[in-house]
């Protein structure tokens, strides 16, 4: 059996057109996560979605949106994710933020996040 490490998965749901200090918000968050030393970050672009406004964002022909939904997933141990979230709170505006406890089966050659 593989040793499992407990970690926290932080998900941020934002729009592609969201910005922070003149740069795309997703880029600012990923660069901040890297500087913070988090274990990993991934930005996923959605094909369709809506948020609090209920305005549909889609890639359908004749209605190409310039504000597609993005999900940013960041992972590390719980304390580091919570510290990162506290430090970036002002950047996040009205985005949806979720936290989830996950089990990491493998991360790099040694398998752990520590």
UniProtKB/TrEMBL annotation:
InterPro entries with a match to the protein in the record: N-reg_PII-like_a/b (IPR011322), N-reg_PII/ATP_PRibTrfase_C (IPR015867), UPF0166 (IPR003793)
Pfam families per the UniProt record, alphabetical: DUF190
Full protein name: DUF190 domain-containing protein
Organismal lineage: Bacteria, Pseudomonadati, Pseudomonadota, Alphaproteobacteria, Hyphomicrobiales
Annotated family: Belongs to the UPF0166 family.
PANTHER family: UPF0166 PROTEIN TM_0021
Coiled-coil segments: none
């Amino acid at each position: 059996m593989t040793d499992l490490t407990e970690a926290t998965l932080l998900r941020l749901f934002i729009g592609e057109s969201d910005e922070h200090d003149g740069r795309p918000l997703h880029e600012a968050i990923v660069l901040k996560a890297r500087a913070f030393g988090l274990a990993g970050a991934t930005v996923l672009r959605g094909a369709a979605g809506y948020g609090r406004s209920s305005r549909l964002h889609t890639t359908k022909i004749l209605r190409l949106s310039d504000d597609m939904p993005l999900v940013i997933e960041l992972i590390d141990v719980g304390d580091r994710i919570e510290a990162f979230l506290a430090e970036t709170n002002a950047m996040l505006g009205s985005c949806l933020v979720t936290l989830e406890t996950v089990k990491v089966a493998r991360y790099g050659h040694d398998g752990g996040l520590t």
